[in-house]
Task: inverse folding
């Protein structure tokens, strides 16, 4: 995998003197997908002020620069544009195509009003792997912002593009990018199937939806996907026994263990931040309650004791608190309880329905599904005033999941009669639908940061 | 570096397998304690589903491991029981519910009573009550809501004299709709409990 061979630490950039650009007008583009998949994708981007204008020059292949590398720089541009924080410049306007800082005429780029410039080249090593060299340049000051050299397998140039996107994001915004991360989700086919004729696949793909790989094929339902904190395992609920059972599956070997198959519901697995425990919903003792299962000792500890429906546990990043859904007040609301046990405290009060809570990685936000009279929407809970603010305008949202850098939320929704995966920023300003092959998609779960080197 | 990683993978896969075996035993033990009211099969009702897991790893580190949930022995199929029609009600196998409710209404009650009477006449027969919900809201909350519906019907049958050991409940939440629309006419058909004779 990626291994920095030589890294020049990026000089801490001064807060970029961002020019205010006119808001991008509400832009609706209808794209017809490739005939093979016959997918219609609608991308709606709301204008974002102060997006950084950035020029990404196609990389050279080899040292001579005579040919272009296949490294897909459009993936870099797409990643940056989708974050809402960058405005990639049109390639047609470039006056020249440098591949290294030494070849750059900065005045040409200032003319285009670029603030940042990305150049690079990919050299094939004797063992066949690709050495990727890239530089991120400050157009105003005519200097290097960051540069890196790393090596990837020859067939991993798309991954390299995601890695470069993360490096650019972090260099210019001071926060980690999440482009080199993965998503898991469930795909159901064929269209309009009814039980028992539906086929389900648990898939893992790049965070932009590309290269989906099936890790579980089933003719019964799969739901409630949960990534282990180390990114190597997924917990999920499977109905292959015609009732709910919680499995934990190793992503690389495919081997799996049933960790909960008690009478009644076995549902909603949620990993503790240290990866040693799974919170879950079990109804084996009479009605759905929250339990914590220790993966080493295999002990089960009960956290709630209430006649109400208690489900959907979510662990806070510091491991101290578990949020969950309960209808003990009459309607589903979010509660929290100390992970070690104790009384439950009600967090949300507003609206008729608040459920499916997930914490951000910094522990400061909770995203959930809320219904305040206009349908089931992704919403954000504020601990300051206990309010829940909807982020979308659809009405059948489910399964919100934070990117590992907390800067995007993916969820499942219905649009134009299709069940799709969508992404929204925590302020609601940036939204898009994922392009995926034909199928009915649900239950997205975003991976932790990629910890492999 | 690669070799080291492969070695580490093999070690951790081996460790995982050891851990797997341990986990299986513990879950089995827990299962044994709970058999009291439940028909003693791991799979509910109809033919078991088929699921195949695949690893992402480029290098084959270990042979794919059989899922640890033990294979279910086929039961002798329960002979088809000839139904004696108790009015039209026995033909009805579905009880419907209001949104967000697990209360059995008077129509539902009449259906349940007919089936309870039938079960008293045919002492060997057993049923599975499947609870379902419409698609609105989160899937896990709907699993809980649908279970409440199945249990409400089970409780009613027990109150009408059917022994608990003959009734099994299972929840499918919103996962198995019978109607695919996104409007109330479809949703009202999906909020249901189905009675399945074994």
Result:
């Amino acid at each position: 995998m990626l291994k920095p061979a030589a890294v020049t630490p990026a000089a801490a950039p001064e807060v970029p003197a961002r020019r205010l650009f006119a808001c991008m007008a509400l832009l609706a583009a209808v794209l017809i997908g490739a005939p093979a998949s016959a997918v219609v994708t609608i991308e709606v981007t709301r204008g974002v002020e102060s997006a950084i204008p950035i020029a990404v020059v196609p990389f050279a292949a080899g040292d001579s620069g005579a040919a272009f590398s296949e490294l897909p720089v459009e993936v870099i541009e797409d990643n940056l544009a989708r974050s809402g924080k960058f405005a990639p410049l049109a390639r047609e306007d470039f006056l020249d195509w440098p591949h290294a800082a030494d070849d750059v005429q900065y005045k040409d780029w200032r003319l285009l009003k670029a603030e940042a410039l990305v150049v690079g080249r990919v050299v094939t090593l004797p063992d066949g792997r690709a050495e990727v060299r890239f530089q991120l340049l400050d157009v105003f000051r005519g200097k290097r912002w960051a540069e890196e050299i790393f090596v990837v397998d020859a067939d991993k140039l798309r991954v390299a593009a995601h890695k470069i996107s993360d490096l650019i994001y972090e260099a210019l915004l001071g926060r980690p990018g999440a482009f080199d991360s993965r998503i898991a989700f469930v795909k159901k086919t064929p269209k309009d199937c009814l039980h028992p004729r539906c086929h389900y696949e648990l898939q893992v793909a790049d965070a932009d939806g590309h290269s989906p790989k099936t890790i579980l094929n089933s003719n019964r339902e799969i739901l409630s996907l949960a990534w282990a904190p180390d990114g190597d395992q997924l917990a999920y609920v499977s109905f292959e026994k015609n009732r709910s059972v919680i499995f934990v599956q190793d992503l690389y070997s495919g081997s799996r263990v049933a960790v909960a198959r008690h009478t009644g519901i076995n549902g909603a697995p949620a990993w503790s931040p240290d990866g040693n425990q799974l919170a879950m919903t079990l109804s084996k003792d009479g009605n759905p309650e929250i339990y914590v299962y220790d993966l080493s000792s295999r002990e089960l500890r009960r956290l709630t004791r209430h006649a109400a429906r208690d489900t959907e546990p979510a662990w806070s990043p510091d491991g101290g608190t578990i949020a969950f859904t309960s209808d003990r007040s009459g309607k589903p609301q979010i509660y929290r309880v100390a992970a070690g046990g104790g009384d439950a405290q009600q967090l949300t009060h507003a609206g008729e329905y608040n459920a499916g809570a997930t914490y951000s990685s910094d522990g400061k936000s909770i995203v959930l599904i809320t219904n305040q009279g206009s349908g089931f929407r992704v919403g954000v809970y504020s601990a300051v005033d206990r309010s829940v603010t909807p982020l979308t305008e659809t009405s059948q949202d489910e399964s919100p999941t934070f990117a590992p850098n907390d800067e995007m939320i993916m969820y499942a929704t219905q649009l134009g009669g299709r069940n799709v995966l969508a992404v929204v920023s925590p302020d609601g300003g940036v939204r898009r639908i994922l392009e995926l092959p034909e199928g009915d998609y649900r239950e997205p779960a975003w991976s932790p940061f990629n910890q492999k080197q | 570096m690669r070799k080291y990683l492969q070695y580490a993978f093999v070690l951790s896969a081996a460790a995982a397998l050891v851990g797997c075996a341990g986990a299986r035993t513990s879950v089995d033990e827990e299962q044994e304690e709970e058999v009291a009211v439940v028909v003693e099969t791991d799979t509910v009702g109809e033919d078991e589903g088929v699921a195949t897991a695949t690893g992402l790893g480029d290098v084959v580190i270990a042979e794919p491991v059989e899922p640890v949930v033990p294979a279910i022995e086929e039961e002798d199929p329960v002979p088809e029981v000839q139904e004696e029609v108790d009015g039209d009600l026995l033909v009805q196998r579905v009880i419907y519910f209001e949104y967000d409710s697990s209360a059995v209404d008077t129509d539902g009650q009449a259906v349940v009573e007919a089936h309870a009477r039938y079960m008293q006449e045919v002492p060997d027969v057993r049923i599975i009550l499947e609870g379902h919900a419409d698609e609105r809201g989160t899937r896990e909350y709907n699993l809980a809501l649908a279970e409440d519906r199945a249990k409400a019907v089970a409780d009613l049958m027990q109150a009408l004299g059917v022994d608990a050991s003959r009734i099994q409940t299972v929840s499918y939440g919103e996962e198995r709709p019978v109607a695919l629309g996104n409007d109330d006419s479809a949703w009202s058909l999906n909020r249901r409990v189905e009675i399945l004779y074994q």
Remarks:
- The two ends of chain B are 58 Å apart (CA to CA).
